[in-house]
Sequence to fold (681 residues):
Amino acid sequence: MNGETSRKSRIPWQHLIVDVERVRRTMQLGLKSLWLHRLRSLLTGLGIVFGVCSVIAMLAIGEGLSYEAQEQIRRMGSNNIIIRSVKPPEDRSSSAERTRVIEYGLTYADVERIKLTIPTVEVVIPSRIIRSDVWNGTNRIDCDIIGTVPSYPEMRNHHVAMGRFFTEEELEENLNVCVLGDGMAEKLFPLDSPLDGIVRIEGDYYKVIGTMEPESERSSMGSPDSNPAAAGPARNATGAPYEMYIPLTAAKSRFGEMLVQRSSGSFSAERVELHEVTIKVGQIDDVVETWHIIADLLTANHKKTDYEIIVPLDLLRQAERTKRIFNIVLGAIAAISLLVGGIGIMNIMLATVTERTREIGIRRALGAKRKDIVLQFLIETVLLSASGGLIGVALGLAIPFFITQFAELQTKVTLWSPLLAFSISAMVGVVFGIYPAMRAANMDPVEALRHE
Amino acid sequence: MDSPIARVDNVRKQYLMGTVMVEALRGLSVDFYAGEYITIMGPSGCGKSTLLNILGCLDRPTSGQYVLGGEDVSTLDDDQLSTIRGTRIGFVFQSYNLIQQLNVLENIEVPLYYQGRPQHESRAIARQLARRVGLDDRMEHKPFELSGGQQQRVAVARALANDPLIILADEPTGNLDSTSGSDILGVFDELNRQGKTLIMVTHSDEVSERAGRVIRLRDGRVERDERRN
Fold:
């Protein structure tokens, strides 16, 4: 009808201001009509349910993984720079030079140079790491023996559980005292307190003066980590399940600097002065600069790259970057699944509008304005997508819980993820509901009434 | 007589049917007065339905004037027309046109709902009207649980809900058997006695005999306009 054209082109946007009471009653109406087609509503909302639920669950898993990784890095100390001795690659597989003594790694001279020349450095902790068996009677443990200085635990945020760590005096006097790492006491002293007990390493005896709290940092370094840099060759002596601490002086004098390994007729020897140096930088802002100075300094004094520098702060930033990328990818997946869900909803709502043409005609004849019809269908769509979102949130919160329970994978649900997912699902209702609703509102009442 | 409650003045209505321009009303003029019981008759294609749509503010004339209750409604916009439909006009359709998912009371309430009447108020009106058309014991029933005659009574009650100036009925007995048909006509007679203005489109001479005025249309114009009494 030609009189219609001018009317149809009018968009009821400007009339979309409505009162609360009407919205409430329209919501009742919408719920009623969704409930009337329960199965259809459920199937239609399923796209949103899965979209929302997968977003929350995946975010929780990602959040959990990166939280764990970041915790581990943070435990290394964000003000710290850790330098480790690494056997230079060209010497690693040289089976021809069986008897040569390989000399590499960090030296006491390096430590002195760093201490003296870099003003931003606050503390330098040298340590030696020797893998060996520790005995108490017939109880044996394969472990890393770390020779270090008294400030080591403080620097590594590692706490004493029982007894104490060794002191400066014990270090200077070169005493045979040791602190057991987590889990060792139970193995070596299954019946009584490890304190004041005596353990044997090769030919020497050490008095146990303390035990350490569990620390997941070490195990994490060898575990598959999301962080590529942290997963590299972490320590010179890797793979040992435990670690214990003795004064650096004792480590030097009891074990010497020469480590001899015999294997099937051949033997190889390594001479390493220090395995690891932990450097604490006074100000966090100086970490990166100090790192570059140390790198230059080491490059100048080492012929080969027989060390690696680990900067927890840098690792942390990398981990954060990785997480950001992960979140972006996740966001894209979520957006796609919600888009698909929204299209599904729009499709059904278009069918519903056609199916209810007669009803629309009746309502229009009885005084419903276009905005009333828009409101009715829009609210119905939003209710549909929002209830889908609600179910999705419930599932999305349940799934991480079960993953933590049964897969022993750490998950972490942040508050904003269900909130965001839910509000997006409601938004999807608005975006994909507006077209079917407008189509319903723009029907000619006369034709709508004639519709069968 | 007083001034007319509804006046149609030289109304033309053209619309496009496919590619052909159809002229449904060709300068039709007619006045309706308060309290009248009018039937509109005529062969199919004479413009009855078009006239009824214009009278009901579902459609606007291409040219000419339609004055309802002293207000020229031929130039109103869509929202204003909706308001007019909701406040001044009661519709009764041939096929009842009840909303299937709503029960009797809720159906009667629909026009009040769109006028923004509070629920307790509209519920009370709906109950009263349901009683008035004899559906006291069917108030919570859905349309499909009712007979045709009962459904049409619901439709009549709904048309009365907003206390309209005119009630428009489009072959209200067309889908009913003779018993429930005369039943409904009885309701209309009663309404007219109470002073309601009724305009009814019908094919049946039997039906039109009850009316005080019969308007016959042909080719979009009034062919004959007779009053009885």
Q: What stands out?
A: The first strand of chain A starts at residue 80 and ends at 85. Residues 384 and 424 of chain A are 13 Å apart (CA to CA).
